[in-house]
Design brief:
Strand order of the largest sheet: 3-7-4-5-6-8
Order of helices and strands: HEEHHEHEEEEEHEHHHE
Number of domains: 2
Distance between the termini: 38 Å
Number of strands: 10
Largest sheet: 6 strands, antiparallel
């Protein structure tokens, strides 16, 4: 399992330090993109990548907010898609662009697992800021062929929030609001340290707005946004729109 004690800000995009940890037999992303371009856009597709009739309507509505970027060829941010999967409790099969290759991921929020053709040590070698989702479809029921290596979903969501491309709040928690950690939230598996641990401790006993958190020791606006995204993805964030601290 990859470590969760990483800097709050993502490292600059780079190739994985241990390229041998990433399987070399993954499909080429350029071949997949070429295939997408040859498929005509129809009324049942989302930017040529997702079959509308195959997705839950509420989940689809979430993803359609980001359709402009998908049509521009940028793909969807992985954190946006995983947030929708967790929020609607829907298992998804994703095709994720990682450098020159295509990484298939199966996300099962009910089981709190992610499956991918990766050994356990390879997760830490992923270039998190560059990951883009090129295709989304329902994962279907668990079968005996669902035998790719599994890793816990919680640490994957946490690493993605802290080290991925998104540096601002997710749409679900943005706007005038104050934030606090739910009392029953268990963050023990994330191994917090330094300024991050201090901010978490404060949010466990007080409610604060984004601007306030950004001024805490060792924090800034991007770090505060990433922290709140991570807590939201762990289902551990209380968002109050009526609290006096909301701004």
């Amino acid at each position: 399992m990859f470590a969760a004690t990483r800097p709050l800000l993502p490292e600059p995009p780079r190739m994985p330090p241990d390229s041998a940890a990433i399987p070399t037999l993954l499909p080429r992303s350029s071949d997949f993109r070429r295939q997408q371009r040859t498929q005509p856009l129809g009324t049942d597709t989302l930017a040529g990548a997702t079959r509308l009739s195959s997705l839950d309507p509420l989940l689809l509505k979430d993803l359609q907010r980001f359709e402009a970027r998908a049509k521009a060829g940028e793909g969807l941010e992985l954190v946006e898609v995983l947030a929708a999967s967790v929020r609607h409790n829907r298992a998804l099969r994703l095709m994720v662009e990682h450098g020159d290759h295509l990484l298939p991921l199966t996300v099962r929020p009910r089981e709190r697992l992610v499956r991918a053709p990766l050994p356990a040590g390879a997760w830490d070698s992923l270039n998190w800021p560059t990951l883009r989702v090129l295709q989304v479809e329902p994962a279907g029921p668990v079968t005996t062929t669902d035998n790719q290596p599994a890793t816990p979903l919680g640490p994957v969501l946490w690493a993605l929030a802290l080290r991925g491309a998104r540096a601002e709040l997710l749409p679900e928690i943005v706007g005038p609001a104050a934030y606090r950690i739910a009392p029953t939230t268990d963050l023990g598996a994330l191994r917090l340290a330094d300024a991050l641990a201090q901010a978490v401790e404060r949010l466990q006993r007080e409610t604060a707005a984004l601007d306030d958190i950004a001024r805490w020791p060792g924090m800034n606006r991007e770090r505060a946004s990433r922290l709140l995204n991570g807590l939201y993805l762990q289902a551990g964030l209380i968002v109050s729109r009526a609290h006096p601290a909301a701004s």
